[in-house]
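Q: Sequence in, structure out?
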Amino acid sequence: MGFETNRLKDGPNTIIGFTILELLCFVCKNVLDTPQQHVDCETMFCEQCIPRCFCPACKNVFYGKPAPRLARRLLERLEIRCKFASRGCESYIMLDNIKTHEEDCTFNTKWENKYVVYLKNLMAQRDEALKKALLQKDEAMKKALEEKDEALKKEWAEKEDAWKKVLAEKEEAWRAELADKEEEIKNLKGEST
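A: Exactly. Output:
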């Protein structure tokens, strides 16, 4: 498919004083895009519009060749509006540069999609870095908790030993006191009899 004539800078009717009709595709009726010419009738078509078997103009078997140099040069010098004009691009570009411009145009949604993909990749990298940092922090916290747990176990073991020792001493003291009291009771019973 060619370029719509309403995209031409000077309008669809003239180009450099010539009638633009000679630079329109016979099939799509738009300005030629990569023009090819039928060998017999010299009718020009966009490369994408080339008929498969028969020429729609002369009805002969289609044999194509590149369009004449003059036609290609005239087309190259046409100034055409960017196809992203509806999105805000106000540029008119010579036809031989239009595809490059439209590929790089800031109003091309492809760039939005590339930007979205770039942002997603950036966020994925950030997420991966955060996960790595969290895993490292998690490992450090586990290690610190294990060390703290070990220190607490050691401290509790020391305290338990100290309490056992104190309880053992108290128990011995109570038993000794109990033995003394039993002795006293025996003595008191022995005196009363």
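Residues 5-105 form a domain with the Herpes Virus-1 fold (CATH 3.30.40.10).
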